[in-house]
Design goal:
The chain is α/β, with parallel strands linked by helices. It is 43% helix and 14% strand. The longest helix has 29 residues, at 109-137. Bound molecules: nicotinamide-adenine-dinucleotide.
Length: 267
Amino acid sequence: MQSTRFVGKNVLITGASSGIGEAIAIRFAQEGANVAINYHSGADRAEAVRAKCAEANPKGKMITVKADVADEQDVINMYAATLKEFGTLDVLINNSGIQKPAASDKVEMADYDKVIGVNLRGAFICAREAIKHFLSRGAKGSIVFNSSVHEIIPKPKYVPYSISKGGMENMTKSLALEYADKGIRVNACGPGAIVTPINMAWINDPKAKSEVESHIPMGRAGTSEEIAGVFAFLASDEASYITGQTLFACGGLTLYPEFRVAWSSGE
Ligand code: NAD
């Protein structure tokens, strides 16, 4: 990756010690950014990502910063630590997310609160702090949320997750509208089925994986690297006239795959 789109830019990525967040961190480093790698647990994994970022961009500054994004004080401390090292911030990637599957009639409210707490409340606190900083600088800034195809596709047995991503769509649009005239762009990427730890239930089981992939028009799950490229685009000046949008990167999952065959008109 030889692009220099983010040389000298400072980027904070939440949940960057694994999966899509890790790939995004490496992608930004490859494109010249200084990267703050937020992690919730597992300092070793965060340090390993930091080392990969440093290898990708030896001239850049790569730091790890621990925080629970659902905890307001933790997030405030995360920004303080990041700004102490970088001085300023140009891009926030709001990537952290969790899911807890359960039939809706059996959902424990503690689990509900946890999922909404990380995915929606956490994303809002992180965005609020980024916006505060962008406004204080009077400089341009970009926020990209990690949403999901479940922003628009219902997900039975994952209702708290589905609600969180649906809410993220409105958060993306509302924040984009509120701050468009301040040079702050807010967008989201909506991945489909991507090979990451959140999908442990099927990624290492060939039968389950093939069942998942049978529903995807392009016939395969996506990679974290494919998703990282979308985040880099949306955060970059190449997307300078795009705000309030979700770009779905899903191999066609949002295209009503059941209509691949003309079953509805009797043909
Ligand atoms: P992942 O489990 O590897 O990543 C989730 C990250 O969030 C982890 O690094 C985890 O440590 C972090 N996290 C969890 N709780 C946190 C907290 N309280 N504070 C800070 N960080 C916390 O899985 P992933 O697939 O890379 O997921 C990343 C994002 O992508 C999520 O928002 C997820 O909803 C979204 N997404 C994933 C897929 C997919 O198929 N993998 C599809 C659509 C959307």
